[in-house]
């Protein structure tokens, strides 16, 4: 039962983060490339690649215990950003045909996405969706 609960929570976190992340990618790619079509291509392709990568990242992190929630969220933010930035750079390079634009878009996202991801993690930490009562009780004792 517990694993089903965790899967449901991770899927919900994946979907909410992907909406935030995709909008950020579309806007940044559009601004940097000057082409709204490029922004949409990168953002929509990323919506698929990043959902898979994010879900796998969540499954790894469910096995890692770090008592301090802020430290945990900070480390998760950094590890996810490395994975996410590499994905963005490669997709941006592919769609623009320009590795320099790929690096520019990836570099811009490092700043915006880390802030957005940290806020997303903090919000989900306060939401009990998908957690059983034992986990909720432990979580609130650690905060």
Can you put this structure into words, describing what you see?
- Residues 11-61, 74-124 form the DUF2061 domain.
- It holds the Pfam family DUF2061.
- This is DUF2061 domain-containing protein.
- The structure is a single chain.
- The protein has 143 residues and is an all-alpha fold.
- The chain has one domain.
- Helix content is 87%, strand content 0%.
- The chain contains five helices and no strands.
- It has helices at 2-33, 36-61, 69-96, 99-126, 133-142.
- The mean pLDDT is 87.
Indicate the topology.
Layout: H1 2-33, H2 36-61, H3 69-96, H4 99-126, H5 133-142
Helix pairs in contact: 1-2, 1-4, 2-3, 3-4
Sum up the structure in keywords.
single chain; mainly alpha; 5 helices
């Amino acid at each position: 039962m517990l694993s089903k609960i965790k899967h449901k929570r991770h899927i919900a976190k994946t979907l909410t983060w992907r909406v935030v992340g995709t909008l950020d990618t579309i806007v940044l790619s559009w601004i940097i490339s000057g082409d709204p079509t490029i922004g949409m291509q990168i953002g929509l392709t990323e919506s698929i690649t990043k959902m898979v990568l994010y879900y796998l990242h969540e499954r790894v992190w469910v096995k890692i215990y770090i008592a301090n929630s802020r430290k945990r969220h900070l480390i998760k933010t950094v590890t996810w950003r490395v994975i996410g930035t590499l994905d963005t750079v490669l997709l941006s390079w592919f769609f623009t045909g320009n590795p320099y634009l790929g690096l520019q878009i990836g570099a811009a996202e490092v700043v915006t996405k880390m802030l957005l991801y940290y806020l997303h993690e903090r919000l989900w930490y306060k939401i009990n969706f998908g957690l059983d009562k034992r986990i909720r009780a432990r979580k609130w004792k650690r905060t």
